[in-house]
Amino acid sequence: MQSMLQILDFLGVAVFCVSGALVASRLRLDIVAFLFFGVFTGIGGGTLRDLLLDAPVFWVVDQAYLVVCIVISLLMWFLAGQVERLGSPLRWADAVGVAAYSVMGAAKTLSLADAPVVAVMMGVATATFGGIIRDTVAGQPNALVKPEIYLTSAFAGAGVYVTLAVFGVPAWPAAIAGGCAALLLRGGAIQWGWSLPAYRPPSERTDRKP
Fold this sequence. Notes:
This protein has 210 residues and is mostly helical.
């Protein structure tokens, strides 16, 4: 269980760091800004998770997470252009981060407390907060206010993992199922524009007769 948590934690940090550095490259910022965007996007969600759980903040306990963010940010300074040519790299990096961190946040919560509903919410917070920090600092609309599926994919990933874990499914199969559920929904939103129906006031729902 502990090894699974650490692998997911490093994966989430790494891919969110890539997404943060890509934003810095698109804004044509300097190398210090690359480091800022990469590091804070990478550790943002996990930091919120640990603070809310009153647990030791993961990157304070193990500075390897910061080293990973710094190395990836520096690599992206040189490789961002090539990564951009792969097509929609920011959104796909974000999708992988959401998949990994929605499961990670939920799993860590369950390891500390028997609270399935709280675990799902912690999974969602862990998966989305880093991207919110990134977009807010960059002055861009964050994914939470866009019509395409984003929060829903985080809920799906955390929800599937927690449900399977509660019913006794081993950690790795539950984590893979949760991550796949989140990635499927987020990938569908990226590839085909999947979205849920938006709220409409009652006055707009009634058919107006001519």
